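Input record (one chain):
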Amino acid sequence: MHGFSQAQFLRAAGRPADLPPPGPPEIAFAGRSNVGKSSAINALAGRRSLARTSKTPGRTQTINFYRLGDAGRLADLPGYGYARVPLAMRAQWAELIGAYLRQRPSLAAVVLIMDARHPLTPLDLQLLGWLERRRVLALLSKADKLSRAEQAAVLKNVRAALPQDTEVRLFSSVTLQGVEECRELLEQWLGQPAENKKPPVKGM
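The corresponding structure, as predicted from the sequence alone:
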C-alpha cells in the first residue's frame, strides 16, 4: 500500500491565517485553472473523488490540504490565469498563494501541472522563477491527447527549457500514464525533505 492511498481531506484555507500549523512535509500542486490539478491528485491517490474536479475554471478558491497518514500532506493550490475571476478574488488568491510559497517551512516540493499541448505559458514560467530553489516536478498533463511522437517532442522541449534539476514527466489521469512513476518520486521526496532556501515571493 502506498502512502497516497491513505489520503484524507484535512482542511481548506481561504486566508493565510487559515493555514494548518506546519507539520509533516508537504507537496503543493500548482497550475493554471482547469489544467487538471485535482484530477492528478485523484489519480496519484487511486481515488475518484478525493479532490473535487470541475469543468468550470476558477472553481477551487482555497488551498485544500490532504493528510497522507503520518507520511506527509498534499496542498491543492487555487488555479491561476483565469480572466473571469473577479480582480478582488484574484488578489486574495495571490496573497494566499504567495504567503504559502514564501513562508511555509514544511513545503518540501511543488508539482507544477501544465497542459502538454500548451506548456510553459508566461504564468507557468513566472511561477517556476519563484520556485528555482525548491524541488519541482513538472507534470505534462493530458498527454493522452498527443501522439507518441508529439509526446516525445514536448518532453524534450520542456526538459531543454527548464533547469537540469527539474523533474519533467508526461502524465494522464485518463490512461494513468506516468502515475506510478510520479507517485514513487513524490513519496521519495516526502521521505527525504530538501532544505529550501528561497527569497521572498512577490504577488501572483
